[in-house]
Design goal:
8 helices, 9-stranded mixed beta sheet, two-stranded antiparallel ribbon, single chain, 247 residues
């Protein structure tokens, strides 16, 4: 008998896009995220920025079994009380506000939550944390995004805390990942702990202090790695949530 497909909310940005004869704002999600969810047995539901959801996040969370926050443009520095860096990308205020509201409420409800790249940063800021706005300034190198627009050549190792959710997901304490980012966690948000770092000290994974439930943010891109176990573990947690809700 086929296993049930948990519904996964995928938070998507509004971006200018071109297709057929059109060139206009559109809801954009890289197919890699969707392919990874489909392969793991999930049913992705794309959620664009919506001020109504910001005010009433349960309207989405009541209908899904997990939520995935994906990569994309920089969070606006005003969300954590800082002035924007010269490298900052154009702000996406409605996306920032909606995703922070969903991250906070999903954590309160214990709904499985996976943050990828920007998604990890959203989780951190939603819990009162801050970001380093331009890693090359802080680290003196560009190893986390050597080449823009590709994951090729942007791989590196991360060290994972033994006994953490992150370690149980990836199955090892030294894990090879694909990165593509110039910002990262600075001050860690309340109720969160760091469970993976790269060799230069950059925060690579966050999860809930105490480890209850599935709340995991990773700075890397598991959707770009067909051998990564991260999205599969998340979908299994969402399926367990679906099963518990239907019991």
């Amino acid at each position: 008998m086929e296993e049930p497909r948990p519904a996964i909310a995928v938070c998507a940005p509004l971006e200018r896009a071109s297709w057929a004869v059109w060139d206009m704002p559109a809801v954009v999600v890289s197919r890699m995220y969707l392919d990874a969810l489909w392969a793991a047995g999930g049913m992705p539901l794309v959620i664009p920025p919506d001020p109504h959801i910001t005010a009433r996040p349960d309207d989405v969370l009541d209908r899904v079994d997990g939520i995935m926050m994906i990569g994309g443009a920089d969070m606006h520095s005003g969300t954590y009380g800082a002035e924007p860096h010269a490298s900052a990308e154009p702000p996406q205020h409605e996306r920032d506000m909606m995703e922070m509201a969903l991250a906070r409420r999903a954590a309160e409800r214990g709904l499985p939550l996976l943050g990828i790249c920007r998604g990890l940063q959203v989780i951190n800021v939603a819990h009162g944390g801050t970001l380093t706005q331009h890693l090359p300034d802080a680290l003196g190198h560009e190893h986390h995004m050597r080449t823009r627009g590709t994951f090729d050549g942007n791989d590196h190792d991360v060290d994972v805390v033994p006994g953490s959710l992150a370690e149980s997901v990836v199955g090892q304490e030294r894990h090879r990942v694909y990165s593509h980012h110039h910002q990262a966690v600075d001050r860690v948000g309340g109720g969160l702990r760091v469970t993976a770092r790269s060799d230069d000290g950059t925060v690579e994974a966050l999860e809930r202090e105490g480890g209850e439930g599935f709340l995991l943010g990773v700075q890397w891109h598991p959707e770009a790695d067909t051998g990564s176990p991260v999205i599969g573990a998340f979908v299994r947690a969402a399926r367990a949530h679906l099963g518990a809700a239907g019991a």
